[in-house]
Amino acid sequence: xxxxxxxxxxxxxxxxxxxxIAQSQTDxxxxxxGETVISLGDSTAPRLxxxxxxxxxxTLEAKDLNKSNAKNVAEAVKSLPGVTVKDYxxxxxxxxxxxxxxxxNHTGVMVDGIAVPDIQSGQIDLGRFGLDNLQAVEIxxxxxxxxxxxxxxxxxxGSVNLVSANxxxxxxxxxLNARLQTGSFGQVEGGLGFVKKQGKRSFWGINGNISHANxxxxxxxxxxxxxxxxxxxxxxxxxxxxxxDYGIDFNDSTQLRAKIYYYxxxxxxxxxxxxxxxxxxxxxxxxxxxxxxxxxKQLKKNWxxxxxxxxxxxxxxxxxxxxLNTTGGLDDRFQQWEYYVSTGLSKxxxxxxxxxxxxxxxxxxxxxxxxxxxxxxxxNLLGSLGFIGKLHKFRLEGSLLxxxxxxxxxxxxxxxxxxxxxxxxxxxxxxxxxxxLRLRIAYKEAYRLPTFNDLxxxxxxxxxxxxxxxxxxxxxxxxxxxDWGILETLQLQADAFHYRIRxxxxxxxxxxxxxxxxxxxGKVVTxxxxxxxxxxxxxxxxxxxxxxxxxxxxxxxxxxxxxxxxYGHQISYTPHETVAYGLGFEGKRWxxxxxxxxxxxxxxxxxxxxxxxxxxxxxxxxxxxxxxxxKQGKMTFRAELNNCFNQQYQVxxxxxxxxxxxxxxxxxxx
Amino acid sequence: MTSRKHSxxxxxxxxxxxxxxxxxxxxxxxxxxxxxVETTEAQNRVLILNEGLWGQNNASFSVIDLDSATVQxxxxxxxxGRKLGxxxxxxxxxxxxxxxxxxxxxxxxxxxxxxxxxxxxxPLFDGNVARQPRxxxxxxxxxxxxLFDGNVAxxxTASLSIEQYIKVGRNPEGLTVQNGKLYVxxxxxxxxxxxxxxxxxxxxxxxxxxxxIPVRINPNNVVADDNGNVYVASRGNHKDxxxxxxxxxxxxxxxxxxxxxxxxxxxxHRDTLFMTLTxxxxxxxxxxxxxxxxxxxxxxxxxxALSNDILYGLAVHPQTSELFLATTPSYTAIGSIKVFDQxxxxxxxxxxSILPRDFAFTSSTLNP
Lengths: 670, 368
Known about the structure:
The complex is a heterodimer. Chain A is mainly beta. Chain A contains four helices and 35 strands.
């Protein structure tokens, strides 16, 4: 099976080359997209209506992304309820997303419904994913059914799905755009993108960005009674990213989508701010690649088929020349690979019942240059079965996911094989006919497998680790309404959740004082509440106002050991409260947006003491854009001011965030 | 149209009034910092260095007044208006000054022993690269500071300036003076798993390294007795090679054979060497005592009542011979100082700060 993967990729490359050669062919102006093909889980599906899912789903569409000042996916999703972004600050700082306080390891990241892996740390840096080439960002809490779908898409306690702009066929024969941006901290970024129809049934596109910033920004360094303004140093970053998409609709019921992605970055790591020692010379290089193929087909008798093939790799090199060893510093290199295939089927038995299932296989490898690095390999076999039943005002859906993994290493003992079966069940009720009011309740179990770092990290790793289990209960109410008084659209959601984590993977010191070990020791119980409102108003004097508001309250308490000093304490880096809001006005050519974010205090360490408090903070961002129609296409000018009131804050202790900063951009679209 | 205008006004008032309300009525309030009391200038004091957690800049300094059995925490910050820094590593008293090494901040803080005010703060850098001070020892108005970059710094305790650096082995840790020589344990800890296996001997006359004595892998703690010997505790490789206590005769600078003891932290008190041991069966940390006269273990569990907390530091009061233990339930939680009499009965327990590790007693030095 594995041998087939490179072959299918060669095929894609051939397609791309063919596309390039055949470019001169005349394009048909009228292009009809196969209407019947609805491959849910990607963007061709009508964007999820709030009231249609039985779990909480949030979608930021391109127009929502434009309203925010976010530069990347991590910054964009901060405005959504239940989302906590752990941000190490600055342009190159790691940004991971945790949903409902489960931690970033439980958050699946997908591109067009297909998982992006990280076997080493299990945490994906969502600061590396830009917004230029996205149609939407979706947050799925608990399960999200869109059959046929991969088994793996059911494996996460929550996920972030990035929908590529070019995952759907363009409406015009040729779309071109060129972008240029500059801003504080010496930021310069340029981008080029195009998507072109090729013949009647296919299209292809390429999108690339290149960026550089010295990344230095001033921050207020507090030390007892003393305050001084210091510059964040060694935080430069240079990167480029290129994405290629190809799509073909063989006929109305058969689709193929291919995507390749490459990201290359070099950055300085300013590190944690250490008093009296601000020097850091650490550097990090990343090279991430993936190529994915997604084939969907409507078969006879209401069967649908999905087939996915993906290869991903990630290379990291970390250098610390100041590390005081004899070789004159650290130079750690890692290379991981994943080969992934999935086949899913679904059948619509009647308007009342749809059933679906999938089988996924993927293998992960990790290579490291350190002495005695175990070079682990993990094979994963997943199977899923599920159903969606609708009757009268009721909807019931559920699934079972089986997960088998086995590992081998080059040297030391490897982790024993594991098998887990996890259920999902959800029930929904719409009390009023024709009204978009939904009551819903859902339960899901999800495992987060130990990462290769947890299992094999030098001295610390523990091959006997069990997967960490999250049991998720949620109940909510959702309401949607269109054309109501002054409101064009209204979306309201309120959800309560109760999450329990068992066998939480945590690092603790062993009896031997100098060695830490990773153990399945933690228990965390979270109770939370999310409120979400989003509305757009009808134009008032040709100006369209819009707004969104979200509020999250979560008590995520350590329940590990009643004798421990932090039993019953709020876990670290989880604010009790977060509030996000935005207000926008859009005229015919211009738009103005104001976005605010407030994060309540949190703790840097597990003990809830005053000295461990990370103070609450709030930021206000504004942006203004103006569209100028040209003979050829249109030009958009954009100005942004971030953190208007120059709030000095930290999300992660010792990693100061930038104060007030600006960005100017110009974009030409054709 | 008017109704629409009305709704617009309503919308606006909701936006400007209700939503800001949400922001100010944050339901959950953070805990408040307890005010720290000014230190009294008690004579019978124990100074405690709390290591803190790496990257948190929360190394701190506590003072126990033994007469009133009270503790004052964050003393350095209270008195000096700034923080001690990141990762406290060693605390010693010499003359009328206290010396504190802050590892990750790479600073030597010198305090006046009575007022606890900082007299001088000496950055220890090679260019802009931190040298990372580890431990300090004294001899005839000179302080010797082991630096993780493979040097020992020589400081004049009168002028408080660094006079020179002496090259030693890899990642030196503990150091002690015996018989006119300085003994430095070269751990090589940052070359894991390829640790160093030597103790450097430096002549205090020439201030040059004169010998390297091979010992068990990863030597860390060294202490001197009154009979011209140096005891070295090696940590082993944390795998198949166990910790080991070794004895160096300073006249021959050779190892002397003694019973096999898996000692970690050492504290010399008159003729007795106190040490933390790891019980091979239970894995629990215990306190042992060892006679430097007979070279025999006297006891291997002096404080059976000790809880399962992590044992992070050990000292013996020079006059009362009481045991002072630094313990913590977790590396990320507030630790405490527990005082036991020679029979192993707990006399006092005081919470300090994160990871208490080192002790210095003022009564003995101020009133000799």
